[in-house]
Structure formats: C-alpha cells, structure tokens
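BACKBONE STRUCTURE TOKENS:
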Amino acid sequence: MTLRLYDTATAAVRDFEPVHPGKVGIYHCGLTVQGAPHVGHIYKEVVFDVLRRWLERSGYEVTVIANVTDIEDKILAKSADRGVPWWAHAYEFERELHWAYDVLGCRPPTYEPRATGHIPEMIELIEQLIADGYAYVAPDGSGDVYFDVKAWPAYGALSHQKIDDMEAAEDADPRGKRDPRDFALWKGWTEATPRTASWPAPWGRGRPGWHIECSAMAGKYLGEEFDIHGGGLDLRFPHHENELAQSTAVGQKFARFWMHNALVTTAGEKMSKSMGNSAVVRNVVERVRPIELRYYLVQSHYRSVVEFSFEALEEAAKSFQRIDGFIARAVEVTGGVEPAAELPAEFETAMDDDLGTPAAVAVLHNTVRDGNKLVADGDSVLLRETLASVRGMLGVLGLDPLAEPWVSRTGGSDELTEVVDGLVKALLEQRQAARERKDFAAADAVRDRLKALGVVVEDTPQGPRWSLASTDEGS
C-alpha cells in the first residue's frame, strides 16, 4: 500500500509523492519558548517523531526542520514580569523544551533554527513582498510593515475561508493598517520594549512578526518547494495561512502537504498554560514513566482530539506495562532477539493509511497476546519471531524498551542495578525455601514486604520473576 496522508489544504487523504524521489523534507513549527511545555505542546513532537520513524522505515532519507521562536510578544511580556532579560527567559525554556522531547524519546530535528538567527532572511523576504505590491510600510512612521491580504486573492485557501468572513488580525497594534485583517510582517520598536529586542531594517528599527519567521526559515533550509509542513491544528489559522500567503506571494510553491495534529484538551477545552502546571511534562512524568506517557499519546490517531486526564493516562500506562511484561518474559526465555526487518502486513497497512496508529497499536497488542501464549512453552522459533516483530513495531512508534533512549534509562547505575537485582533475588530464594518447607506464612511475608517496596513478584514455569509496580500500584 502506498503511503497516504491527510492534506489540510485539499481536505483529503492523498497519495504521498515527495518532491525528490527517496527524500522527504519536513518543517514543523516549534514552540514559542515562553514557558515550560505541557502535554499539549509535546504531542506535536511525538506525532512528527513517529512520522519521521515511519518514513525512514519505508526507505526515505528524511530532513526535519523545527524552529524555535525565541522573540515574540509573549516572551517580552513574561520576561518583564519576571524581571529577567527576554533572551535569558527564552533560552531557559528552550532548554526545557529540549528536555521534554528528549525525555519522551523524540529524536532531535535535523536542524533547529532560532528566529533571532534569521533576521536578514526575514528582511529580505519582506523587501520582496513590498516590491511586488503584497506588503506596505505603515504611513504613520511607526516602522510597522503589514501584509496586504486583499492584494493576494488566494488568501484563506488553507483554512477554506473568505477574506470578508475573517475577523481582524490581533497580532499587532492596528496603527497604520489599511485593513484590520492585514497582519504584521515587522513591528516597529517602541520604548515600551527593550532595545535589545530590535534590529535595524530599511523601514525602521524593530522586530519580526511571528508569521514571517517560519516562511524565511522553511525556505532557507528546505527550498522553495518541500514535502510536509506540520503543526498543531490551532496553527492552521492564522499562522500557517499567513505563512502560505507570504511564501507563495514571492513565487514559492512551498509545502505539498499540510499536516495538522488535533489538540489535547482538558474538560473539552484546549490545554493552555492558564490551566496551571498539572499537565506540564516535567510534572506528568513524575506520575507515570515517560515511555508510558508517549504510549498514551501514540495510541490515538493524530487527527483525533486527545482528552487528557490522569485516569486515562494511568490506564494507558497499565496497557503498556502488559507489552513491557511480555518483552521481559520473552527475553528471559529466549535470551533476546533483534527487532524484525519485516513487520506484520496489517501494521504496515495501518501506518500507510494516514499514520493510523490506533490500528497499528491493535496489531501490536494482538501479537503480544499470541506471544504470551508461547512464553509458557519455553524457547521456540515462533516465540523469537514474535518478540522480534513486537520490537520492530515498537521501534516505529518509538516505544521499544530495549532500544535507546529507554534502555539507558532503566534507573541508576549498572552497579546499583546489579545490587538491587541481587538483593531481590536473595529474598525470592528465601521465599522459595519457605514454600518448599511449607512455611507459607513466611513466604507470604516476603512477598508482602516486596510489594510494599513497589516490587511485583510473578511466579512463572521458569521460576519467580520480579518487576517494579506502576506508580498507582505501589502507592
């Protein structure tokens, strides 16, 4: 089956054909680093990490560009409230972003350009828009520059709107606008903001508007036409609409596909920083393991709304623990195998069908269920094939606990792991000895003590084995 993806611009699922055979260029909008990322922010990173993994598994050479918006009105406002320089504020939360997508096993982009590092490219693009009649300098001497939406007849094509039905653009002070729907390409500097947050330009000192940043950076690193532009659905309008207008107005073909992941909501409302810190990634991974949070996000289709709750998250964690448990038991019996080179046809079909992770996860669970039946019979070719298949599917989803980064995060140093393993095994030997002399009270006391410490004991045909309990089981 040919890979098919939903394209927001055409509102249809289409066959994916890259601009350059065998190569794929992806640009997805990074965060405005104004604060610590929450689960809603990191969802996009997980979605496009899975897309990248599947494209690479399908034989493509993939280039991923994901920007960092490190100059923007919210950054200036929040840094002023904290009394720290805007650039220090931005860098602090840029590092927090990197931590968040690293802790969730997202591979870093091929390149991650910062907005402040591409001011010359933005100025050049704005100059061309002015020269071609699609932008104008505000006549009030403010130094503002605006895109003239009525000068570009295709404006509204991505979001399927008519200009007359749109509300005023709220990305800048309306001073000097010809039309309230015109959006800012450049914001003239005022004494209300730090001078360090401004750069010289032909029309006056100032800073770039939000939308021009991505047009400049996508064009610089991926060329005038590339394969996929992505981001959260909330960016479709006005951000991506404005990017498309700017770039195509200067003659670029821009993106062939527009991919938008749905939002993560809480109580039916878009997750936002105003909801508090409970869903901040750093706090959530104190409740469940990072790999379990990733599984929770992957199990939903990227175009379906994820209704976040800790109850749903913990249920997903238990579901993943069943997969994890099978792998541990199968490795114990077989000694371990490498991930399969070939995956189940049903899994591949699901992934090729607009990145259908729910159906792919269902195939994964069915395979694990079959594998659990094989474990009791000991080592076999079929068990090894099943384990290899499970690992291969998990690798595509970024969830293989025996692969990086997860294998290096089992907790503690190698020496400490060996010590803990030895101590638990010693207690299990005491328990087994008690059972053999029919002192079941002593055997149960060992088991209860281990359970109180968060260690789950499972009796198998190969002998007792132990694992750490999930957060809710150990509390």
In short: The longest helix spans residues 310-334. The chain has a mean pLDDT of 91.
